[in-house]
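Onboarding guide, step 5: your first structure request.
Type a short instruction followed by the sequence, for example:

Predict the 3D structure of this protein.
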Amino acid sequence: MKIGILSAMQEEFDLLLSEVKDARRTSLGMREYIEGTLYGKDVVLVFSQWGKTASASTTANLINVFKIDRLIFTGVAGGLDAQAKIGDIVIARRLFHHDVDASPFKRRYYVPLVGADGIASDDQLSDELSSAAQKFVADIAQYISEEDRAEFSLGDVAVHRKNIATGDQFIKTDDVRTRIMTDLPDMYAVEMEGAAVAQVCWEHSIPFAVMRTISDTANEHSPMDYPKFLDRVASIYSLYIMKNYLESL
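The system replies with structure tokens like these:
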């Protein structure tokens, strides 16, 4: 089994890459794909860059060139649900494009071949990833310093299986956040790649899961120290949750 691991943030990719053994590098489509072993499993690791087009292109290469059997996407997201807290983990149940609108030809959020009801992630893979995340959360004090847990209020981290909205914009105003929540009321988080990755995997019958760490609240009150959060929190989440997952196989 060969597992594709896709990251949209350089910090997460770099930390995962540091653990890859017997790395072999292939440059394709302005990306570098790293084949090797990670915690004893065959993987292909790649930094996709941001946005739907970049992640879709990268996913297609993982499937058609590198012949992966399953794909896991890891990254950060803005919280939409009122209960979403910075540091929480959401593993997608379904993913929706919140910026698709071909009306009046089709109803809003309709995606060709897919429809308007989003794309379901693979249940077994998502459940396995959720278990790995729960194990990480139980031991979080081993991996995130007390100082960083206090600074980012990581005292009661939760793992969710919820819906995620995707669009090619960083959500930073209440107006846009409210529009998404009104039109797609079951969304827990918002990001810029997941639904595109999901759509390509679905079209090729590749099992996939999308895991996101909540980094902000998708409005004017979002914290601005993203580099610190990515370096000290999100990248560590990704590394050790992936470690738990791979070692459980």
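Each response can be followed by summary notes, for example: The helical segments are 10-17, 52-64, 123-138, 146-151, 174-183, 194-203, 226-248.
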